[in-house]
Amino acid sequence: MNEMPSHFRLSERRGMEPFAPQPTAAPQAQTEDYIDLREVLAACWRQAWIVALCVVVFAAAAIAYAMSLQPKFTSFATILLDQDRAALVELISEQQVEALRDGIVQSEVEILKSQELALRVVDDLGLTARPEVLNTSPSPVSVALGAVKSAAGGLIDALGGGGDTPTASAAEAADQTRSLRERLALKLRQNLVVQRIGRSYVLGLSVNAPSADLAQEIANGYVDGYLEFGRAGDAAALDTAVAWLRQRTDDLRTAASNAGRALEEYRVENGLVSVGTRLLSEQEVSELMSQLILAEAEASAARAVAAHGADAVAAGPEAALQNLPSLPSAGPDGAMEALRAEFLSLTRERSRVAERFGEAHSEVGAIDQRLSDLERLFFEEVKRRAAQAETTADVQTRRVAALRTGLDNATADATNDTGAQYELMQLQETADSYKTLYQSALTRLERTVSQLSLPIVAARVLTLPDQPTGASSPSKAKFAALGIALGGFLGGLIGLTREMTRSAIKTAADVKRVLGLPVLATMKRRLAWWRRPLAGAGRERARTNALRAMKVAVDAHAGRTGLRTVAFISARPGEERAQLAYDFAAMLASHGIACLYLDIAQEARRAATDVSLVELMHAPELPDFAHLTTGDLPLAILPGAPGGARDPGETAVFAGSDRMAEVIAALSEPAQYIVLDLPAASEGPGARAFAEYAQTAILVHRAGRAGDREVLAVATVPEWDEKVCGAVLVDR
Questions:
Q1: Inter-residue contact 575 to 622 (CB < 8 Å)
Q2: Which of 156, 188, 230, 431 has the fewest Cβ atoms surrounding its Cβ within 10 A?
Q3: Cα distances (angstroms) measured from residue 487 to each of 54, 479, 499, 660, 732
Q4: What are the pLDDT digits (tens) for 286-314?
Q5: What is the spatial distance between Cα 249 and Cα 257, in angstroms, rounded to a whole number?
Q6: Cβ(68)–Cβ(207) below 8 Å
Q7: Residue 221: closest CA among 192, 264, 245
Q8: What topology is assigned to 503-730 in CATH?
């Protein structure tokens, strides 16, 4: 049990045991955040009616809007494109037909959507004489906008003072007809949908219209107009292509004949004899060039061998055996191979004999003499092969010089024919080009003439335009689904906002679950004076019972004997804490229990004496308990600060002083209870400053006033954690 400090309690006067401070409870560990599925489901259930209401309202509004729209009917047809149409493009393009297919299909789609084809359909169906068939009833939104625009136009005309409309002339009538025709074509394009079906050559065409017959009629008009448009375009393209190709073929034939004649005449005049496709001088220069390249390569190799032979001779007899295999020989030399084998055998024999009998042995000397003779023979062979390589290099060098001289002479001879040869090549290329172009143009002309003689079917209809059996739009199901989705989203958003802004502590179960405190009483807010007679005596009786329950909890927590100090705390001001603290003190006094009421918060002005707790801190003499009472009840009321100040912070400054404890102890001499009305936690540390003067505390919470985190922070601070005996929940 927490008790007041001994210097304040005056335990020797009360007959109680001296105060023994208890260890402060460790702050509660911060639990790890987690998602409580039960809380999530409970929140969803609380806001389900909002979502359901929004869904019903929006779905009904969407269906009502859909029913107000004029129904539209859709006629559908499919057209298959002919792949041979790509041949028309091939006439004037070198691209492959396969690369043009996707472009051709997309071009046909754009043709179906074009204004030119729409104008043709308007003329074929005679829609200018009956433009009203395409009129549709506007939507309610359009009607409202039209009314606003009409009112604005009428107001402008009235302010501007419009005159009489002049009679339209023939030119104006023609302009009006042309404008009407274009507007009808634009309306047809707006009601037309053309798309390629997959990666095929099939085009799907759908037309929307106010009636089923009109939709089928317009779809048939589009199909017939498209086929006729394609036939006319193909015929015009073929005629133009044939005329152009005939002229082009004649021109190319004449140019090819003239080019061939000029080539032969130039060749005869300049005496240019050719073998195959090249002149004799060109062939001679080419052969000499090839021989010179091979000779230079062989000469380079011979010079390299001669240089190596010279290096071998300079190395002396000692390196003759190592250099001998790298020098070329005229043919197989068996004698040298035998001498080399003998040299290797004697070398091994000398090592064996020297190891067995010593270097001074006569046999070793004989072997050394034989090895010296062999090295001399090897060196002579090296010098011979080096001389032979030098001779070969000289021969190859002279051969290269001779070939170079011959090439220079042949080049000089061919240079004299350079101008004539270049001119001949130009004439030959011109003649070949004209001949190729002539053959290509002749082939295209034959193909085009064959196509012109046969009718070209650009496309054919796979599915004739059908007559709709029902309206395609508006789809009430889609509007209803859209309304349900929009209503569900908006309802969920509203519910989420409500759930995030609501206070989690609203019921007694919430107090027990969040704060872990017992609920001493659940009370209604104090009614205004003009509503109290209507509430009856039952409300006052319930309030009295709640105050008694608080006293029982305080007595159980503080003990049965001695001075009891109880503090009323809250998270925010205006939570009925001040009224409950005063009513609690008044209830005690009404039963003859002396009570000192310290109004530290001073939220409501109480009938009190002209002194305050702050003023008594410096007073030489303290008033007695009876001086602070009002009326006949043993209730002493003492505000924290002077009446004009009403500043809880001024009182909190002196809370920790010994003088404050002495003043309160002196004033509470005859009292059995001290009731502390402390400021709200949101107003600063005033409540925590007076925590040491309280044995027990009652937390007052008004549902919806403060959030659950604020209330939990007040109840779990170390100063109040073990002193709070319960909570009082005030309903809205």
A1: no
A2: 156
A3: 5, 12, 18, 62, 30
A4: 777 888 788 778 777 777 777 766 776 67
A5: 12
A6: no
A7: 192
A8: Rossmann fold (3.40.50)
